[in-house]
Design a protein that fits this description.
Helix content is 67%, strand content 1%. By secondary structure, it is an all-alpha fold. The chain is elongated, with a radius of gyration of 36 Å. Keywords: Signal. GO terms for molecular function: structural constituent of nuclear pore.
Length: 943
């Protein structure tokens, strides 16, 4: 590495080619792969490059420094190939073992072959490496060389204006003449001529020479460190810098070469020397010789610096590849990394160094951002490095407490936010910055998602005001995100980031004025109609978040959101086939429809007490009236398995998804809102009103169906199938359960993810969703996950909304009966039979009792507490419904129901009484129970 890096580079090229060939040369590579000495030597080579890294003085740099960085890059590529190959081989071995149960006990995760290198990384060396590779090596010599070229051009223009062509080649002389013509016609040059003429100078040639002479000395001052102030002369210098007549084609500069190629990397010094004819100039033209030779000397140094900086950038990109492969390797359970791989502390230090280097490069971009494109590839590499390190950090802290990482995450967000603001202003003149901006937005979005997903970060003590700092940062970012929301390439990321900001710790009175000023909603809606489905879904998610506040709902209403949604949803391909199969190619259309209904529901909820509420209701009825058949068809497919008359539905497996269930919830929310306006009965669709209620009752029967405590859960309701489909759902299915209930839909949901029929889903989704817990010895025991719990909660949310809708229907019917002073059963709405309500009640009682008994007197976690509240409200509503049905229809209690219900609810109330926050629920449940079963309270059976 020190004596002959070129020879080492050739050897590393050969080794890299062997590793790239993979399994074909596996036996040849085996001795190297298993050699600790080999990997230790590679580590020493990386260390050597850091130890002999040159100082900022360009005179200390020679060709060997660049070659060493190329060697370092090759080593990182070899390490990347080895990590990937190791993981691939272990995965194939693991699959073979799974196919051969006899060898399962013998299988274990394999040690990492490059553990020597990874252990070496897990200390301060990683930070040193990041700091060295990501630092800006593009020093001022590059800009100096370009300024020196401008100085030479002005000098030659002055010479040619007197007729002195010197020894210039004919082609080069023509180039100078063209530049001269354009320069003299430049608006800044003409402005200077006007200024000079006001001071008494006359004659065109005299004025031109005066301006050129002053420009010459000002450029020479720039070369010596005295910057030209903004104005006409600065404009002329920028104009001259744009010609680049001495520079190579940028594509030729990026060619993969290791040699200096006779000083032709950026400037072809020898060719320029011949074009100028410097050797032929006479001694009388001493000034011209000095200008030319100084320019050529600066160009030679710039070539050396550019080659060195590009070599370091190449090593950085190879290092990025290694980190990306490493990120995949730490997710591979079959690969045994030493001490779990690079430590969190080492990653934190690396992130600090990367942020510092990136900020330094951004600061150096400010003075000449419009001309210094040479920094753009480095900026892209630095941003990718930040994102990769952040992803490694987020993965390391995925299942651990993360409060100590807050300062690092806030640093990442500050760095990305400030740089994004600057780059957006430069993007119109520097298109190469688009990719760094997109990467910065991904980093920003990932940071927000991580911060908001960690419970321990949300529960930080008051003296650590991380979220206050985050709120201020978020507010400062909103204007620039609003601007990027109109950019087609950045719209998705910008709007998704805004969505998280609005959902986060920033109050609406802070972000609403900013959105009203900077967010052009009409423009966004127009682009949404013409954009692809992905961007449409992201924007609708944002509009849903916006519509959940009163001010946001008013903004949406003023933007005529109903007309937009009508037009958007009319373009969707929604039919019975996509409703029967929620996993079809039209699942995106179903999602968009659900989001649209959610937006409409949020407007009705937030503007319930507003003066414009009647207008909102009118628009909602008009909007939903055109979708009543589709709503009925959709709800019917969700409960198809309960229609005993439909043999085809029973013989086929009913497919659904969390998105489809969410759509069902949004439909029911709207029906509950519009029920008091007699929708859809008063819209001329009385038969539809009856059919809709019947379908909803069937759906409730489906939810309440089944035994609560006994029976094989994997065979219960085998016609219902709801797998994890999208990436986020599959990730949730990897997480352990939080509520941990073995009753009701918390048990059923785990079995509903198992496909026993020929359903078309991806193998990865099916395998990841279904897990049997074999450790318990029960072959029918299905392992519960966070995904199955979310599925269960979603179903109970639907059950609550059904009860709420049916209660509003019953309440209206009772009120009408009181007005007429008799009960007209012919016009009485369809209501569920008591046995349907009993199934739901039993599920709730068992689940709530189990949860409270398991927690004792300890405080429930917020998620579990919300679920218990939902279930208890559902129980109370179902009891009121049962009271209404029994009294209106004269139905007597089922034999034995009183004793069973008494025993269950008594145990539940005893478990709840230890939690004071649930006292209101206990009182209300006791009240309705005493009305439904008067004997319970009279005989003190509830006490």
């Amino acid at each position: 590495m020190n004596r002959s890096p070129l020879v080492l580079l050739s050897i590393l090229d050969l080794l890299k080619a062997l590793w790239e060939s993979g399994i074909r040369f596996l036996f040849i590579l085996e001795k190297l792969r298993s050699s600790v000495t080999f990997w230790d030597n590679l580590s020493r080579c990386i260390r050597a490059t850091l130890d002999i890294s040159p100082i900022d003085n360009i005179d200390a740099i020679d060709e060997k420094f660049s070659l060493r960085y190329h060697c370092q890059g090759k080593i990182f590529e070899i390490m990347s190939h080895e990590l990937f190959l190791q993981g691939k081989l272990l995965t194939e071995t693991s699959n073979t073992v799974q196919d051969d149960p006899k060898g399962q006990k013998e299988h274990k995760s394999g040690p990492c072959r490059i553990s020597v290198v990874l252990k070496w990384f897990d200390n301060a060396i990683l930070a040193d490496l990041v700091s060295n590779l990501s630092s800006n090596a593009y020093k001022k010599e590059l800009h100096h060389a370009k300024v020196a070229a401008c100085l030479c051009i002005i000098h030659l223009i002055t010479k040619l204006s007197t007729g002195d062509t010197g020894s210039l080649s004919f082609s080069f002389m023509k180039k100078i003449q063209i530049i001269s013509t354009k320069l003299l016609q430049h608006h800044a040059f003409l402005a200077l001529l006007s200024q000079y003429s006001l001071h008494g100078y006359s004659g065109e040639q005299e004025l031109n020479n005066l301006v050129l002479n002053d420009l010459y000395y000002l450029i020479r001052g720039e070369l010596e460190g005295r910057q030209i102030s903004s104005g006409p002369f600065q404009e002329l210098l920028s104009f001259l810098l744009g010609f680049r007549i001495f520079e190579h084609n940028p594509l030729e500069q990026l060619q993969n070469t290791y040699l200096m190629a006779n000083d032709k990397f950026l400037f072809d010094v020898e060719h320029i020397h011949d074009e100028l004819g410097v050797d032929l100039w006479t001694d009388s033209d001493k000034r011209s010789k000095e200008v030319a030779k100084k320019m050529l000397d600066i160009m030679s140094k710039a070539n050396l610096m550019k080659y060195y900086a590009d070599a370091k950038l190449s090593a950085l990109m190879s290092f990025l590849k290694f980190l990306s492969v490493y990120k995949g390797a730490i997710s591979n359970k079959n690969l045994d990394l030493p001490d779990g791989g690079i430590s969190v502390a080492a990653t934190q230090s690396a992130i600090k160094c990367a942020c510092k280097s990136f900020e330094s490069t951004v600061d150096s971009l400010l003075p000449q951002a419009h001309t210094d494109e040479v920094l753009f590839p480095l900026l892209s590499g630095q941003v990718e490095l930040l994102l990769t390190l952040a992803r490694i950090l987020f993965h390391q802290a995925k299942n651990k407490k993360s409060s100590h990482l807050c300062p690092d995450i806030v640093l990442l967000m500050k760095t990305s936010g400030a740089s994004t603001c600057l780059f957006v202003d430069l993007m119109p003149s520097a298109h190469a910055l688009k990719q760094p901006v997109k990467t910065l937005l991904v980093l920003l979005l990932s940071s927000y998602e991580f911060m908001y997903s960690k419970v321990d970060i949300k529960d930080l003590p008051n003296d650590i005001n991380i979220f206050g700092e985050l709120a201020l940062l978020s507010v400062s970012l909103l204007p620039i995100l609003c601007k990027l929301a109109e950019n087609r390439e950045c719209s998705d990321l910008a709007v998704a980031s805004m969505d998280l900001i609005l959902k986060g710790s920033v109050p609406s009175n802070l972000w609403m004025p900013i959105l009203q000023k900077h967010f052009h909603l009409q423009t966004i809606l127009h682009k949404c109609q013409n954009g692809d489905l992905l961007s449409t879904q992201v924007i609708l998610n944002f509009l849903l978040t916006l519509g959940r506040t009163k001010d946001g709902a008013k903004v949406l209403q003023s933007a005529n959101i109903f007309a937009f949604l009508k037009l958007l949803l009319s373009q969707l391909s929604l039919d019975d086939s996509c409703l029967r199969n929620s996993l079809s190619a039209q699942v995106k259309d179903v999602n968009l429809w659900g989001l649209g209904l959610g937006i409409v529901a949020s407007l009705n909820h937030c503007l319930d007490d507003d003066i414009s509420h009647n207008n909102v209701v009118s628009n909602t009825i008009s909007f939903l009236s055109g979708h009543v058949p589709l709503v009925s068809s959709y709800l019917s497919t969700q409960s198809a398995t309960t229609h005993q008359s439909k043999k085809r539905a029973l013989s086929q497996k009913s497919q659904t998804s969390l998105s489809a269930l969410s759509l069902t919830e949004n439909i029911l929310i709207l029906l509950c809102i519009l029920a008091k306006y007699h929708f859809p009965r008063d819209t001329g669709k009385k038969e539809v009103d009856s059919e809709l209620r019947e379908i909803i009752i069937h759906l409730l029967a489906f939810i309440s169906k089944g035994s609560v405590k006994t029976g094989n859960a994997s065979k219960w309701n085998s016609s219902f199938f709801c797998p994890a489909v999208i990436k986020e759902e599959v990730a949730l299915n990897e997480k352990p359960p939080l509520i941990c209930s073995k009753y009701g839909w918390f048990r059923f949901a785990a079995s509903c993810t198992l496909s026993t029929a020929g359903v078309s889903v991806s193998p990865s989704a099916a395998l990841s969703v279904v897990r049997r817990d074999k450790t318990s010895g029960d072959s029918d025991s299905i392992r519960q996950t966070r995904f199955t719990e979310i599925l269960a909660v979603q179903i109970y949310r639907i059950a609550f909304l059904i009860m709420k809708f049916l209660c509003s229907q019953a309440k209206e019917a009772v009120k009408r009966a009181e007005e007429l002073e008799f009960l007209d059963l012919a016009h009485f709405p369809e209501l569920p039979m008591p046995d349907i309500l009993h199934g739901l009640q039993d599920q709730v009682v068992c689940i709530v009792t189990e949860i409270f008994e398991a927690n004792g007197s300890s405080t429930l976690n917020p998620e579990t507490e919300k679920v218990c509240q939902l279930l208890l409200v559902t129980l109370e509503t179902s009891l009121y419904m049962e009271l209404c049905v029994s009294q209106s229809c004269g139905i007597r209690p089922v034999l034995g129901r009183l004793e069973d219900f008494c025993k269950g609810i008594k145990a539940m109330l005893q478990a709840i009484e230890k939690h004071s926050s649930f006292e209101p629920f206990v009182r209300s449940l006791t009240e309705i129970t005493s009305l439904l079963y008067p004997g319970l309270l009279h005989n003190n059976l509830l006490m």
